[in-house]
């Protein structure tokens, strides 16, 4: 079973007048994992889709949602999957891929059938998708194959490891890029100093957050910032004009996914912390 919801894009001048409730209604994705369902959010920011597949008692087939006006989900799209739970299986047009904890799978345009299923463990498949103009091969990517970068400093509470899993230096994609950032123990700030990149939008998905703890995700234009508090297994949409940073009451891990006209990971417009308002 595949369920979906639709989100419009927003002008930054409108967003700065939103109440807390309106901000959460438009940008927070509160529930990605529903038992025996695929839950998707289709956003008009670069027509990006984010969601989760949570097979518990049965396998789940990825179906084309109404917004796609297509016979199959991947007729004009590419797909990225990162498993944040126990080992599971993803079957793509009959070929089975075992996807372990924190492993990724890229599925190219044109594949007809994608099926998610549990094994003896319970997987949580986090899904991102973007429009695609070319078909690239399906490829599994483990953390050993990722590009790994260490950033930050414990002095500034932002020491972190960035695992670039589905980026163009690791796997061929059209525009989809995904990776995973791990905050080290005692560090709470992500993407600080922050940045914007008007060539790409982004979605952050937070997980491995200790029960009872929270992350405050900062968004908005650098001189008009807003915040949204998130819990474990929740995601937030980041427009191209918005910063995307966060601070938690404990350390955590998050997955960043993005799409747009530029595949250069380093294409960022940096903002110094003292410039934020």
Automatic annotation (TrEMBL):
**Enzyme class of the recorded protein, top EC level:** isomerase
Q: Which GO terms describe its molecular function?
A: 4-deoxy-L-threo-5-hexosulose-uronate ketol-isomerase activity
Please give the InterPro entries that the UniProt record associates with this protein: KduI, KduI/IolB_isomerase, KduI_N, RmlC-like_jellyroll, RmlC_Cupin_sf
Chain segments annotated as transmembrane: none
Pfam families the UniProt entry points to:
KduI (PF04962)
Determine if Nuclease is one of this entry's keywords: no
- Keywords, A to Z? Isomerase, Metal-binding, Zinc
Q: Which domain of life is it from?
A: Bacteria
**Pathway(s) of this molecule:** Glycan metabolism; pectin degradation; 2-dehydro-3-deoxy-D-gluconate from pectin: step 4/5
Keyword Zinc on entry: yes
> Catalyses which reaction?
5-dehydro-4-deoxy-D-glucuronate = 3-deoxy-D-glycero-2,5-hexodiulosonate
Q: Provide the cofactor note recorded for this chain's UniProt entry.
A: Binds 1 zinc ion per subunit.
Q: What is its EC number?
A: 5.3.1.17
What are the names of the required cofactors? Answer: Zn(2+)
Quote the CDD domains the UniProt record gives: cupin_KduI_C, cupin_KduI_N
Q: Which Gene3D superfamilies match?
A: Jelly Rolls, pectin degrading enzyme 5-keto 4- deoxyuronate isomerase, domain 1
Residues the entry annotates as binding Zn(2+):
195, 197, 202, 244
Q: Which family does it belong to?
A: Belongs to the KduI family.
Q: What does this protein do?
A: Catalyzes the isomerization of 5-dehydro-4-deoxy-D-glucuronate to 3-deoxy-D-glycero-2,5-hexodiulosonate.
Q: Which HAMAP family match?
A: KduI
Task: Give the protein's recorded name.
Answer: 4-deoxy-L-threo-5-hexosulose-uronate ketol-isomerase
């Amino acid at each position: 079973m595949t369920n979906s919801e639709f989100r419009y894009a927003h002008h930054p001048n409108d967003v700065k007048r939103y109440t807390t409730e309106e901000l959460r209604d438009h940008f927070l994705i509160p529930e990605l994992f529903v038992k025996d369902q695929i839950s998707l959010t289709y956003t008009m920011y670069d027509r990006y889709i984010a969601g989760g597949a949570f097979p518990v008692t049965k396998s789940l087939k990825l179906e084309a949602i109404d917004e796609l006006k297509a016979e199959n989900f991947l007729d004009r799209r590419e797909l990225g999957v990162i498993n944040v739970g126990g080992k599971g299986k993803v079957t793509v047009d009959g070929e089975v891929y075992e996807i372990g904890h924190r492993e990724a799978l890229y599925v190219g345009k044109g594949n007809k059938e994608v099926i998610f299923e549990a094994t003896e463990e319970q997987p949580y498949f986090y899904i991102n998708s973007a429009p695609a103009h070319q078909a690239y091969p399906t490829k599994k990517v483990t953390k050993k194959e990722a590009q790994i970068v260490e950033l930050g400093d414990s002095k500034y509470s932002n020491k972190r490891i960035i695992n670039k899993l589905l980026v163009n230096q690791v796997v061929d994609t059209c525009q989809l890029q995904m990776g995973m950032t791990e905050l080290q123990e005692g560090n709470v700030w992500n993407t600080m100093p922050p940045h914007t990149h008007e060539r790409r939008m982004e979605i952050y998905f937070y997980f491995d957050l200790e029960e009872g703890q929270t992350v405050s995700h900062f968004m908005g234009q650098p001189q008009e910032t807003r915040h949204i508090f998130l819990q474990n297994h929740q995601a937030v949409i980041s427009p191209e004009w918005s910063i995307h940073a966060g601070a938690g009451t404990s350390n955590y891990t998050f997955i960043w996914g993005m799409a747009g006209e530029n595949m250069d990971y380093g294409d960022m417009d940096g903002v110094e912390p003292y410039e934020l308002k």
